[in-house]
Amino acid sequence: MKKFFTALFAVIFIAMSCLSFTACANPFNDEEDGKDHVDGKITLKVAVLNSDNEKSAMRALKKAYELKNPDINISIKTMRSDYANSIVDFVKTPSTFPDVVWTPGEYHSAFSQAGHFINLKPLMDADPSINTEDFYESVMEITHYNNTDDGVWFAPRDYNKPVVIINREMFRLAGIEVPSLEEWNINKFFEICQKLRVKMDNINNSEEEKLAGLLWSSYPVEARLDWNPSYLSWIDNYGGEMFDTSKTGEASISFDSEESKDAYKEIWDKFVRTRYAPGIGGTGLFSSKAAGMWITVRPEIPALCNAKMDIDFLPMPTEKVAMGCSGYAIPAVTKDRLDTTDGNTKTNAELAWDFVKFIISEEGQDILGKIGTGIPVLKSMASRGSWRNFYNAELNHEAFVSAPEKDMSQMVYYQFNPVNHVLLLKQMNNVANTMLSMTTWSGTPLDIEKPGTGSYGKLDEELANIRKEVKKLI
User: Fold this and answer.
1) What is the C-alpha separation between 113 and 193, in angstroms, rounded?
2) What pLDDT score was predicted for residue 332?
3) No. of helices (H) and no. of strands (E), the chain
4) CA nearest 430: which of 193, 242, 262?
5) 43 and 75 in contact (C-beta within 8 Å)?
6) Most buried among 2, 47, 112, 229, by the most CB within 10 A?
7) 467-474 contacts at long range (C-beta below 8 A, 24 or more positions apart)
8) Helix, strand or coil, per DSSP, at residue 203
9) Other Cβ atoms within 10 Å of 29 Cβ, number
10) pLDDT digits over 421-438, tens only?
11) Smallest Cα–Cα separation from 367: which of 127, 133, 72, 23?
């Protein structure tokens, strides 16, 4: 345990920026977050991220659950955006741990391995109403703390993979038809990028077109190439990878392989050189009508809904799609908590499991679908439920659940020590940022055709430095 804490406190955790959104026509507009004590009721404390999305989701679940369980009071608490350090604070003072804590898949593993959360798998296996095979396989993989663990350390709440959102007004003014699912592929994606770029660069655009964002300063796509679900999908698409996991139980560094460097060059050529997308940054382009498409995830939709943007959805056009999920964990300390209100004999852990079980049920998942911020984790709800009616039932909501066989986990570092997962994610981001920060691949030390180099020059140097840091972690 001492070694665990030493490693954790040595980590410079990545701040998790969480945009705050409010869903359109949210039927659960309950401003009461729950009190610490309500006479005659048992109180469960639930900690969520301090964002409008997360608070709105939990208020909806709280209201529905309390109607079914009038003897329970759900008290909603908020954590700061730095999830990992928030959990460290709870670990240092266990009495402050809530009874249920919101958990992002990519940050839980160190805490799960250390025993700070309850393994939910035995509870799921013992409950006839739950079959883990009903959940997307890729989602369940993320609930483990590494690739040899079979525990379920948080209950997955959402099936969260990137899609391509399109601005239909910009498409219409650029003379581009929205492609059908049948004709949508990577060639069509870049064909549309090229058409948008040409239209944006046209100095004779009408005032209506300019107001819609068809300007030289705009981009065909806000591709978010420095965001791991996006860059992992594109790197894989062009034959690269961060780590070689082809051998069971073994792994090696491969982000600096020739194949991976070729993939980086392909991404830079396809997006940055062409000005189809900005390299680093560019956040908020689509929402400000400065991009025709946006690679992003479902939680961003309510803000576009509130802005009354004319949008539609298409799947990621890559061969594989890096996905993730968040959910709710039950801290181990809840096993020792007992609220004896009204003769209650169930521990807080048992009560918390009943609430979490409600969240992952079809009823709970449909409640979340009403507020528009997530896709159900249950495969049975892929073609039905309130989530398919959010904003506009005529939109291509199918994009969010299409081709689950193409899913790949964002956690490509799961074969390594869970204590170092956050740092490995940081180094993956360093690789992506290094790839994108080069101003040009032609006529610089990066140019592979430059006489006398025979390599990627400066990129080789930068990746060698990152390799040294990664070697310390594996």
Assistant:
1) 44
2) 98
3) 16, 13
4) 242
5) yes
6) 47
7) 467/253, 467/255, 467/256, 469/427, 469/430, 470/253, 470/255, 470/424, 470/427, 471/253, 473/416, 473/417, 473/420, 473/423, 473/424, 473/427, 474/251, 474/253, 474/416, 474/417, 474/420, 474/424
8) coil
9) 12
10) 999 999 999 999 988 876
11) 23
Q: Quick: pLDDT tens for 75-124.
A: 999 998 889 999 999 999 999 999 999 999 999 999 999 999 999 999 99
Check: pTM over 0.85? Answer yes or no: yes
Confidence band (pLDDT; 50, 70, 90) for 327?
Answer: very high
- Taking alpha carbons only, the member of 170, 273, 276 closest to residue 221 is 276
Q: What is the pLDDT of residue 314?
A: 98
pLDDT tens readout for residues 290-313: 999 999 999 999 999 999 999 999
Beta carbons of 188 and 194 less than 8 angstroms apart: no
* Nearest-angstrom CA–CA distance, 255 and 374: 31
Instruction: Indicate the average pLDDT of the chain.
Output: 88
Could you tell me what percent of the chain has a pLDDT over 70?
88
Can you tell me whether residue 314 is helix, strand or coil?
strand
The DSSP annotation for 343-393 comes to G---BHHHHHHHHHHHHTSHHHHHHHHHHTS---SBGGGTT-SGGGGSS-T
Residue 262, Cβ density class (10 Å: 0-12 exposed, 13-18 middle, ≥19 buried): middle
